[in-house]
């Protein structure tokens, strides 16, 4: 019997709780808190593209581009990955401009913490990526679903910008961090369900 994927819920809850405590202790605005989460989202996007390119067997059922079915071949895989980078990248470039305008990292401590976050995100995502690729190899994941998964990370960032990311009040942090945590949990749940279905099909 294939091994079930690991539940990352406890780790996600702890990581987001620690982030909230740090933000409150350092008196960050929501915009300041968006910096590490923006960086995390970029890293996830990078590995999402690598994951798509690593597929050897995949489905494109229900997935179209320009009203045409995406072919289940190398060309379809690469064109999808490249489109994802362009579209996902435009979102994050716009958010980057917003962050530099609203909360430029002026203090050395901010830069050090951001660099530390980036390192930890890459370290964690590399492990997740390896598990995802191994799970994908056991089944036949849908390319379209893999492409759209990372956008769950974009929603909390977008909502925070729309509803007042420049706020310095604690209320903003208590709104944004739960939204981001929910997005993390949803993404993890969908990922695990896809991996488990693939494992069961072996």
Description:
- The chain has 202 residues and is mostly helical.
- The protein has one domain.
- 75% of the residues lie in helices and 2% in strands.
- The chain contains seven helices and two strands; from the N terminus they run ααββααααα.
- The chain has a two-stranded antiparallel sheet with strand order 1-2.
- Strand 1 and strand 2 (68-69) form a beta hairpin.
- The longest helix has 31 residues, at 108-138.
- It is globular and about 50 Å long.
What multimeric state do the chains show? single chain
Largest sheet: 2 strands, antiparallel
The shape, in one word, is: globular
Integer tally of domains: 1
Low-confidence stretches: none
What Rg, in angstroms, do the CA atoms define?
18 Å
Mean model confidence by pLDDT: 81
Helix content: over 70%
Biggest sheet strand line-up: 1-2
Instruction: Count the beta strands.
Output: 2
Distance between the termini: 9 Å
Transmembrane segments: 12-38, 81-100, 157-179
Keywords: Membrane, Transmembrane, Transmembrane helix
Pfam families: DUF6498
InterPro entries: DUF6498
In short:
With about 200 residues, the protein is mostly helical. It has one domain.
Question: How are the SSEs placed, and which strands pair?
Answer:
Layout: H1 9-25, H2 30-54, E1 64-65, E2 68-69, H3 74-102, H4 108-138, H5 143-148, H6 151-162, H7 170-200
Antiparallel strand pairs: 1-2
């Amino acid at each position: 019997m294939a091994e079930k994927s690991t539940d990352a819920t406890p780790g996600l809850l702890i990581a987001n709780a620690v982030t909230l405590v740090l933000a409150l202790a350092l008196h960050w605005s929501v915009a300041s808190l968006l910096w590490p989460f923006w960086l995390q989202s970029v890293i996830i996007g990078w590995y999402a593209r690598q994951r798509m390119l690593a597929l050897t067997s995949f489905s494109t059922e229900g997935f179209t581009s320009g009203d045409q079915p995406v072919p289940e071949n190398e060309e379809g895989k690469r064109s999808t990955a490249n489109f994802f980078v362009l579209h996902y990248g435009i979102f994050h470039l716009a958010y980057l401009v917003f962050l530099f305008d609203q909360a430029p990292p002026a203090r050395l401590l901010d830069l050090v913490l951001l660099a530390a976050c980036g390192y930890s995100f890459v370290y964690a995502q590399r492990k997740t990526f390896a598990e995802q690729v191994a799970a994908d190899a056991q089944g036949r994941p849908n390319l379209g679903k893999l492409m759209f998964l990372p956008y769950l990370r974009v929603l909390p960032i977008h909502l925070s910008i729309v509803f007042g990311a420049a706020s310095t009040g604690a209320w903003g942090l208590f709104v944004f961090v739960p939204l981001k945590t929910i997005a993390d949990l949803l993404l993890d749940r969908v990922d695990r369900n896809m991996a488990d279905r693939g494992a069961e099909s072996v």
